[in-house]
Amino acid sequence: METLILILKTYVTAGLRGELAATKTFSHSKRFILTSVKCGSAGVRIHENFIPATSWNIKTCRRFHPSRCQAYADQDVNQGTKLHEKLAEKNYDSIDVDLVENGTVGVIYLDRQKALNALSEALMNEVVDACQTFESIEEVGAIVITGKGKAFAAGADIKEMKDKTFEDAHKSRLFSHWNAVAALRKPTIAAVNGFALGGGCELAMACDIILAGEKALFGQPEVKLGVIPGIGGTQRLIREVGKSRAMEMILTGKAFMNAEEAAQRGLVSRVVPGDNETLVAEAIKVAKSIAELSRPTIAMAKEAVNAAYELGLSEGIKREHSLFCATFALEDQKEGMAAFAEKRDPQFKHK
Ligand code: CAA
Which family does this protein fall into (predicted)? Predict the structure, then answer.
Protein backbone atom coordinates (compact mmCIF):
# COMPACT_ATOMS: atom_id res chain seq x y z
CA MET A 1 0.00 0.00 0.00
CA GLU A 2 1.43 3.36 -0.99
CA THR A 3 0.69 6.78 0.30
CA LEU A 4 -0.29 9.84 -1.59
CA ILE A 5 0.49 12.94 0.44
CA LEU A 6 -1.31 16.12 -0.30
CA ILE A 7 0.11 19.24 1.31
CA LEU A 8 -2.74 21.65 1.54
CA LYS A 9 -2.43 25.33 2.07
CA THR A 10 -5.60 27.02 3.06
CA TYR A 11 -6.16 30.49 1.82
CA VAL A 12 -9.20 32.03 3.33
CA THR A 13 -10.09 35.08 1.35
CA ALA A 14 -10.78 37.17 4.43
CA GLY A 15 -7.05 36.98 5.08
CA LEU A 16 -6.77 34.03 7.43
CA ARG A 17 -3.97 31.75 6.32
CA GLY A 18 -2.86 28.44 7.57
CA GLU A 19 -1.01 25.33 6.55
CA LEU A 20 -2.59 21.94 6.83
CA ALA A 21 -1.39 18.54 5.85
CA ALA A 22 -3.54 15.60 4.97
CA THR A 23 -2.55 12.09 4.20
CA LYS A 24 -4.58 9.82 2.03
CA THR A 25 -3.86 6.22 1.37
CA PHE A 26 -4.15 4.64 -2.03
CA SER A 27 -3.45 1.10 -3.04
CA HIS A 28 -2.93 2.11 -6.65
CA SER A 29 -0.71 5.17 -6.38
CA LYS A 30 3.07 5.20 -6.61
CA ARG A 31 3.69 8.90 -6.76
CA PHE A 32 3.29 11.95 -4.68
CA ILE A 33 1.20 14.89 -5.57
CA LEU A 34 2.43 17.93 -3.69
CA THR A 35 0.17 20.81 -4.22
CA SER A 36 -1.32 23.78 -2.58
CA VAL A 37 -4.96 24.45 -2.62
CA LYS A 38 -6.69 27.74 -2.25
CA CYS A 39 -10.06 27.35 -0.73
CA GLY A 40 -12.23 29.34 1.58
CA SER A 41 -13.49 26.26 3.37
CA ALA A 42 -10.54 23.95 3.05
CA GLY A 43 -10.50 23.16 6.75
CA VAL A 44 -13.94 21.64 6.66
CA ARG A 45 -13.35 19.82 3.45
CA ILE A 46 -10.07 18.33 4.56
CA HIS A 47 -11.82 16.68 7.48
CA GLU A 48 -14.22 15.16 5.02
CA ASN A 49 -11.23 13.97 2.97
CA PHE A 50 -12.53 15.93 0.05
CA ILE A 51 -10.05 17.91 -2.01
CA PRO A 52 -11.61 20.85 -3.82
CA ALA A 53 -9.69 20.30 -7.00
CA THR A 54 -11.21 23.21 -8.83
CA SER A 55 -9.26 25.44 -6.50
CA TRP A 56 -5.82 24.13 -7.39
CA ASN A 57 -3.14 26.73 -7.39
CA ILE A 58 -1.98 26.94 -10.98
CA LYS A 59 1.68 27.73 -10.35
CA THR A 60 1.97 24.67 -8.20
CA CYS A 61 0.10 22.56 -10.72
CA ARG A 62 2.71 23.62 -13.24
CA ARG A 63 5.48 22.15 -11.14
CA PHE A 64 3.61 19.04 -10.15
CA HIS A 65 1.49 18.60 -13.18
CA PRO A 66 -1.35 16.24 -12.36
CA SER A 67 -1.02 14.43 -15.66
CA ARG A 68 2.39 13.16 -14.53
CA CYS A 69 0.74 11.39 -11.65
CA GLN A 70 -0.73 7.99 -12.08
CA ALA A 71 -3.63 8.48 -9.81
CA TYR A 72 -5.62 11.30 -8.43
CA ALA A 73 -7.15 11.63 -5.04
CA ASP A 74 -10.67 11.04 -6.20
CA GLN A 75 -13.23 11.80 -8.87
CA ASP A 76 -13.42 15.47 -7.89
CA VAL A 77 -9.70 15.91 -8.42
CA ASN A 78 -10.06 14.39 -11.88
CA GLN A 79 -12.75 16.84 -12.85
CA GLY A 80 -10.84 19.80 -11.52
CA THR A 81 -7.69 18.63 -13.23
CA LYS A 82 -9.31 18.80 -16.64
CA LEU A 83 -10.11 22.45 -16.12
CA HIS A 84 -6.74 23.27 -14.71
CA GLU A 85 -4.73 21.42 -17.31
CA LYS A 86 -5.80 24.03 -19.80
CA LEU A 87 -4.18 26.69 -17.65
CA ALA A 88 -1.31 24.71 -16.17
CA GLU A 89 0.01 23.96 -19.65
CA LYS A 90 0.33 27.64 -20.35
CA ASN A 91 3.45 28.31 -18.29
CA TYR A 92 2.83 32.01 -17.89
CA ASP A 93 5.78 34.09 -16.73
CA SER A 94 4.40 37.59 -16.22
CA ILE A 95 1.04 36.72 -14.77
CA ASP A 96 -0.37 34.26 -12.29
CA VAL A 97 -3.77 32.72 -12.81
CA ASP A 98 -6.16 30.98 -10.52
CA LEU A 99 -9.57 29.39 -10.60
CA VAL A 100 -11.57 29.95 -7.45
CA GLU A 101 -15.11 29.51 -6.16
CA ASN A 102 -15.30 25.94 -7.42
CA GLY A 103 -13.91 26.90 -10.79
CA THR A 104 -16.54 29.54 -11.52
CA VAL A 105 -14.28 32.59 -11.18
CA GLY A 106 -11.01 33.07 -13.06
CA VAL A 107 -8.45 35.39 -11.50
CA ILE A 108 -5.53 36.98 -13.34
CA TYR A 109 -2.74 38.57 -11.28
CA LEU A 110 -0.37 40.86 -13.19
CA ASP A 111 2.98 39.85 -11.76
CA ARG A 112 5.97 41.92 -12.86
CA GLN A 113 6.27 43.65 -9.55
CA LYS A 114 9.81 44.97 -10.07
CA ALA A 115 8.53 46.99 -13.01
CA LEU A 116 5.25 47.92 -11.27
CA ASN A 117 3.49 45.41 -13.54
CA ALA A 118 4.39 47.39 -16.65
CA LEU A 119 2.55 45.90 -19.58
CA SER A 120 5.27 44.26 -21.63
CA GLU A 121 4.27 42.61 -24.85
CA ALA A 122 4.73 39.20 -23.22
CA LEU A 123 2.52 40.18 -20.28
CA MET A 124 -0.18 41.52 -22.56
CA ASN A 125 -0.13 38.38 -24.68
CA GLU A 126 -0.43 36.29 -21.55
CA VAL A 127 -3.36 38.32 -20.21
CA VAL A 128 -5.19 38.04 -23.53
CA ASP A 129 -4.46 34.32 -23.65
CA ALA A 130 -5.61 33.77 -20.06
CA CYS A 131 -8.79 35.76 -20.69
CA GLN A 132 -9.56 33.71 -23.75
CA THR A 133 -8.82 30.51 -21.89
CA PHE A 134 -11.21 31.50 -19.10
CA GLU A 135 -13.73 32.46 -21.77
CA SER A 136 -13.43 28.94 -23.20
CA ILE A 137 -13.90 27.17 -19.85
CA GLU A 138 -17.63 26.64 -19.67
CA GLU A 139 -17.86 26.77 -15.88
CA VAL A 140 -16.20 30.18 -15.54
CA GLY A 141 -18.82 32.87 -15.05
CA ALA A 142 -16.64 35.95 -14.47
CA ILE A 143 -13.01 37.05 -14.56
CA VAL A 144 -11.10 39.21 -12.07
CA ILE A 145 -7.96 41.09 -13.14
CA THR A 146 -5.68 42.58 -10.53
CA GLY A 147 -2.05 43.50 -9.94
CA LYS A 148 0.38 42.06 -7.42
CA GLY A 149 2.35 44.46 -5.24
CA LYS A 150 1.93 48.20 -5.15
CA ALA A 151 0.59 48.71 -8.68
CA PHE A 152 -2.27 47.53 -10.80
CA ALA A 153 -0.09 48.44 -13.79
CA ALA A 154 2.14 51.48 -14.39
CA GLY A 155 1.39 51.48 -18.10
CA ALA A 156 2.81 49.94 -21.22
CA ASP A 157 6.46 48.95 -20.87
CA ILE A 158 8.32 52.13 -21.79
CA LYS A 159 11.74 50.53 -21.94
CA GLU A 160 10.49 47.87 -24.32
CA MET A 161 8.82 50.28 -26.75
CA LYS A 162 11.21 53.24 -26.60
CA ASP A 163 13.09 52.32 -29.80
CA LYS A 164 10.06 51.44 -31.90
CA THR A 165 9.57 53.34 -35.13
CA PHE A 166 6.32 54.52 -36.67
CA GLU A 167 6.59 51.59 -39.05
CA ASP A 168 7.02 49.09 -36.20
CA ALA A 169 4.00 50.47 -34.37
CA HIS A 170 1.83 50.69 -37.46
CA LYS A 171 2.76 47.37 -39.03
CA SER A 172 2.38 45.40 -35.81
CA ARG A 173 -0.82 47.30 -34.92
CA LEU A 174 0.83 47.99 -31.59
CA PHE A 175 -1.46 47.15 -28.66
CA SER A 176 -4.51 46.54 -30.85
CA HIS A 177 -4.79 42.91 -29.71
CA TRP A 178 -5.47 44.36 -26.27
CA ASN A 179 -9.02 45.03 -27.50
CA ALA A 180 -9.61 41.33 -26.90
CA VAL A 181 -10.15 42.09 -23.20
CA ALA A 182 -13.06 44.44 -23.88
CA ALA A 183 -14.44 41.98 -26.43
CA LEU A 184 -14.86 39.13 -23.92
CA ARG A 185 -18.41 37.91 -23.47
CA LYS A 186 -17.85 36.97 -19.85
CA PRO A 187 -17.90 39.82 -17.33
CA THR A 188 -14.57 41.22 -16.19
CA ILE A 189 -13.79 42.98 -12.93
CA ALA A 190 -10.65 45.06 -12.42
CA ALA A 191 -9.47 45.23 -8.81
CA VAL A 192 -7.20 48.28 -8.86
CA ASN A 193 -4.92 48.48 -5.86
CA GLY A 194 -2.27 51.11 -6.68
CA PHE A 195 -0.96 52.83 -9.81
CA ALA A 196 -3.22 52.42 -12.82
CA LEU A 197 -1.36 54.63 -15.24
CA GLY A 198 -1.38 54.83 -19.02
CA GLY A 199 -2.11 51.36 -20.36
CA GLY A 200 -2.88 50.28 -16.78
CA CYS A 201 -5.72 52.78 -16.56
CA GLU A 202 -6.83 51.72 -20.02
CA LEU A 203 -6.80 48.05 -19.08
CA ALA A 204 -8.97 48.79 -16.04
CA MET A 205 -11.38 50.78 -18.21
CA ALA A 206 -11.57 47.89 -20.69
CA CYS A 207 -13.08 45.82 -17.88
CA ASP A 208 -16.80 45.90 -17.07
CA ILE A 209 -16.53 46.82 -13.41
CA ILE A 210 -13.72 48.55 -11.55
CA LEU A 211 -13.33 48.20 -7.80
CA ALA A 212 -10.70 50.48 -6.30
CA GLY A 213 -8.52 49.99 -3.27
CA GLU A 214 -7.88 53.05 -1.11
CA LYS A 215 -4.47 53.58 -2.72
CA ALA A 216 -5.68 53.39 -6.31
CA LEU A 217 -4.35 56.16 -8.53
CA PHE A 218 -5.54 56.63 -12.09
CA GLY A 219 -3.71 58.66 -14.71
CA GLN A 220 -2.80 59.00 -18.37
CA PRO A 221 0.78 60.34 -18.33
CA GLU A 222 1.60 59.38 -21.94
CA VAL A 223 2.09 62.94 -23.22
CA LYS A 224 5.03 63.32 -20.88
CA LEU A 225 6.69 60.57 -22.92
CA GLY A 226 5.86 62.23 -26.23
CA VAL A 227 3.01 59.84 -27.10
CA ILE A 228 -0.72 59.77 -26.50
CA PRO A 229 -2.85 57.09 -24.83
CA GLY A 230 -3.00 54.16 -27.21
CA ILE A 231 -5.24 51.50 -25.71
CA GLY A 232 -8.54 53.36 -25.60
CA GLY A 233 -7.71 56.06 -23.05
CA THR A 234 -8.76 59.04 -25.15
CA GLN A 235 -12.09 57.38 -25.93
CA ARG A 236 -13.08 55.71 -22.68
CA LEU A 237 -11.90 58.20 -20.07
CA ILE A 238 -14.06 61.01 -21.43
CA ARG A 239 -17.16 58.85 -21.13
CA GLU A 240 -16.38 57.98 -17.54
CA VAL A 241 -15.24 61.30 -16.07
CA GLY A 242 -16.43 63.95 -18.56
CA LYS A 243 -14.52 65.97 -21.13
CA SER A 244 -12.94 68.57 -18.90
CA ARG A 245 -11.45 66.15 -16.34
CA ALA A 246 -10.38 63.70 -19.05
CA MET A 247 -8.69 66.51 -20.98
CA GLU A 248 -6.95 67.73 -17.84
CA MET A 249 -5.59 64.24 -17.14
CA ILE A 250 -4.59 63.49 -20.72
CA LEU A 251 -3.21 66.91 -21.71
CA THR A 252 -1.16 67.54 -18.57
CA GLY A 253 -0.09 63.94 -18.11
CA LYS A 254 -0.40 64.68 -14.41
CA ALA A 255 -3.57 65.48 -12.46
CA PHE A 256 -3.89 61.86 -11.39
CA MET A 257 -7.21 60.79 -9.91
CA ASN A 258 -7.35 59.12 -6.53
CA ALA A 259 -9.77 56.41 -5.49
CA GLU A 260 -12.22 58.71 -3.77
CA GLU A 261 -12.56 61.04 -6.75
CA ALA A 262 -12.73 58.07 -9.13
CA ALA A 263 -15.72 56.78 -7.17
CA GLN A 264 -17.38 60.21 -7.07
CA ARG A 265 -17.04 60.58 -10.83
CA GLY A 266 -18.14 57.04 -11.64
CA LEU A 267 -14.84 55.80 -13.04
CA VAL A 268 -15.02 53.01 -10.44
CA SER A 269 -18.03 51.40 -8.79
CA ARG A 270 -16.75 51.99 -5.29
CA VAL A 271 -13.73 52.07 -3.01
CA VAL A 272 -13.07 48.97 -0.96
CA PRO A 273 -11.46 49.91 2.36
CA GLY A 274 -8.59 47.75 3.59
CA ASP A 275 -5.59 46.07 2.03
CA ASN A 276 -5.07 44.38 -1.35
CA GLU A 277 -6.28 41.02 -0.15
CA THR A 278 -9.55 42.54 1.01
CA LEU A 279 -9.95 44.26 -2.35
CA VAL A 280 -9.32 41.08 -4.33
CA ALA A 281 -11.60 39.11 -2.01
CA GLU A 282 -14.34 41.66 -2.64
CA ALA A 283 -13.80 41.49 -6.40
CA ILE A 284 -14.03 37.70 -6.24
CA LYS A 285 -17.22 38.02 -4.20
CA VAL A 286 -18.78 40.23 -6.87
CA ALA A 287 -17.54 37.86 -9.59
CA LYS A 288 -19.01 34.89 -7.71
CA SER A 289 -22.40 36.56 -7.39
CA ILE A 290 -22.39 37.11 -11.16
CA ALA A 291 -21.17 33.58 -11.84
CA GLU A 292 -24.09 32.14 -9.88
CA LEU A 293 -26.53 33.57 -12.40
CA SER A 294 -27.44 32.30 -15.83
CA ARG A 295 -24.35 32.70 -18.02
CA PRO A 296 -26.24 33.33 -21.28
CA THR A 297 -28.44 35.91 -19.57
CA ILE A 298 -25.38 37.66 -18.17
CA ALA A 299 -23.71 37.65 -21.60
CA MET A 300 -26.82 39.28 -23.08
CA ALA A 301 -26.99 41.87 -20.30
CA LYS A 302 -23.33 42.75 -20.90
CA GLU A 303 -23.89 43.00 -24.64
CA ALA A 304 -26.89 45.28 -24.14
CA VAL A 305 -25.04 47.61 -21.77
CA ASN A 306 -22.02 47.76 -24.07
CA ALA A 307 -24.29 48.65 -26.98
CA ALA A 308 -24.83 51.98 -25.24
CA TYR A 309 -21.17 52.75 -26.00
CA GLU A 310 -21.56 52.17 -29.70
CA LEU A 311 -25.11 53.14 -30.60
CA GLY A 312 -27.47 56.09 -30.33
CA LEU A 313 -30.35 55.82 -27.84
CA SER A 314 -33.06 54.56 -30.20
CA GLU A 315 -30.75 51.96 -31.79
CA GLY A 316 -29.57 50.95 -28.33
CA ILE A 317 -33.12 50.51 -27.10
CA LYS A 318 -33.87 48.32 -30.13
CA ARG A 319 -30.82 46.17 -29.40
CA GLU A 320 -31.89 45.87 -25.78
CA HIS A 321 -35.39 44.85 -26.84
CA SER A 322 -34.09 42.12 -29.16
CA LEU A 323 -31.85 40.74 -26.44
CA PHE A 324 -34.59 41.01 -23.84
CA CYS A 325 -36.95 38.98 -26.07
CA ALA A 326 -34.15 36.47 -26.70
CA THR A 327 -33.91 35.73 -22.99
CA PHE A 328 -37.39 34.17 -23.23
CA ALA A 329 -35.86 31.45 -25.40
CA LEU A 330 -33.70 30.36 -22.47
CA GLU A 331 -34.56 27.55 -20.10
CA ASP A 332 -32.98 29.75 -17.46
CA GLN A 333 -35.70 32.38 -17.93
CA LYS A 334 -38.34 29.70 -17.26
CA GLU A 335 -36.42 28.47 -14.25
CA GLY A 336 -35.72 31.95 -12.85
CA MET A 337 -39.33 33.02 -12.99
CA ALA A 338 -40.70 29.65 -11.82
CA ALA A 339 -38.33 29.78 -8.85
CA PHE A 340 -39.57 33.25 -7.94
CA ALA A 341 -43.22 32.12 -8.13
CA GLU A 342 -42.47 29.00 -6.08
CA LYS A 343 -40.45 30.96 -3.49
CA ARG A 344 -37.24 28.94 -3.97
CA ASP A 345 -33.73 29.56 -5.29
CA PRO A 346 -33.33 29.08 -9.05
CA GLN A 347 -31.17 26.26 -10.41
CA PHE A 348 -29.79 27.71 -13.60
CA LYS A 349 -28.60 25.33 -16.32
CA HIS A 350 -26.92 28.02 -18.38
CA LYS A 351 -28.99 27.36 -21.44
N1 CAA B 1 7.53 50.80 -18.13
C2 CAA B 1 8.70 50.23 -17.79
N3 CAA B 1 9.17 50.23 -16.54
C4 CAA B 1 8.48 50.87 -15.60
C5 CAA B 1 7.26 51.50 -15.89
C6 CAA B 1 6.77 51.43 -17.22
N7 CAA B 1 5.61 51.95 -17.57
N8 CAA B 1 6.77 52.05 -14.76
C9 CAA B 1 7.68 51.77 -13.79
N10 CAA B 1 8.70 51.06 -14.31
C11 CAA B 1 9.86 50.54 -13.59
C12 CAA B 1 10.85 51.65 -13.30
O13 CAA B 1 11.67 51.90 -14.42
C14 CAA B 1 11.61 51.06 -12.14
O15 CAA B 1 12.51 50.10 -12.63
P16 CAA B 1 14.07 50.11 -12.12
O17 CAA B 1 13.97 49.74 -10.66
O18 CAA B 1 14.70 49.06 -12.96
O19 CAA B 1 14.56 51.48 -12.33
C20 CAA B 1 10.53 50.29 -11.38
O21 CAA B 1 9.47 50.08 -12.32
C22 CAA B 1 9.98 51.06 -10.21
O23 CAA B 1 9.56 52.32 -10.66
P24 CAA B 1 9.98 53.70 -9.95
O25 CAA B 1 11.32 53.57 -9.34
O26 CAA B 1 9.82 54.78 -10.96
O27 CAA B 1 8.87 53.80 -8.81
P28 CAA B 1 8.28 55.10 -8.14
O29 CAA B 1 7.42 54.61 -7.03
O30 CAA B 1 9.35 56.08 -7.83
O31 CAA B 1 7.36 55.78 -9.27
C32 CAA B 1 5.65 55.76 -11.00
C33 CAA B 1 6.19 55.12 -9.69
C34 CAA B 1 5.19 57.17 -10.73
C35 CAA B 1 4.50 54.89 -11.47
C36 CAA B 1 6.79 55.79 -12.05
O37 CAA B 1 7.38 54.50 -12.13
C38 CAA B 1 6.31 56.16 -13.42
O39 CAA B 1 6.12 57.32 -13.71
N40 CAA B 1 6.16 55.16 -14.33
C41 CAA B 1 5.76 55.38 -15.71
C42 CAA B 1 4.27 55.66 -15.79
C43 CAA B 1 3.91 55.96 -17.23
O44 CAA B 1 4.39 56.90 -17.82
N45 CAA B 1 2.98 55.14 -17.79
C46 CAA B 1 2.54 55.27 -19.16
C47 CAA B 1 3.32 54.32 -20.04
S48 CAA B 1 3.04 54.58 -21.73
C49 CAA B 1 1.57 53.82 -22.07
O50 CAA B 1 0.95 53.18 -21.24
C51 CAA B 1 1.12 53.97 -23.49
C52 CAA B 1 -0.25 53.50 -23.75
O53 CAA B 1 -1.27 54.16 -23.46
C54 CAA B 1 -0.44 52.29 -24.48
Answer: Belongs to the enoyl-CoA hydratase/isomerase family.
Task: For residue range 51-107, list pLDDT tens digits in order.
Answer: 343 343 333 333 333 433 323 334 344 555 566 667 777 889 999 999 999 999 999
User: Could you tell me the distance, in angstroms and rounded to a whole number, from the CA of residue 116 to the centre of ligand 1?
Assistant: 7
**Range(s) of the domain holding residue 333:** 295-341
Q: How far apart are CA 146 and CA 105, in angstroms?
A: 13
199 is catalytic: yes
What DSSP letter does each residue of 81-118 carry, written as one string? HHHHHHHHTT--SSEEEEEETTTTEEEEEE--GGGTT-
Same-domain check for residues 242 and 128? yes
Task: Let me know if 156 is a catalytic residue.
Answer: yes
Total domain count for the chain? 3
Q: Are 132 and 179 found together in one domain?
A: yes
Q: Using the atom order of ligand 1, give the atom closest to the CA of residue 221.
A: 44
Q: How far apart are the CA of 247 and the centre of ligand 1, in A?
A: 22
SS3 270: strand
Is 310 an annotated catalytic residue?
no
Q: How far is the CA of 190 from the centre of ligand 1 (A)?
A: 20
CA distance 196 to 293: 30
Ligand 1 atom at minimal distance to the Cα of residue 229: 53
Tell me, what's the pLDDT at 91? 85
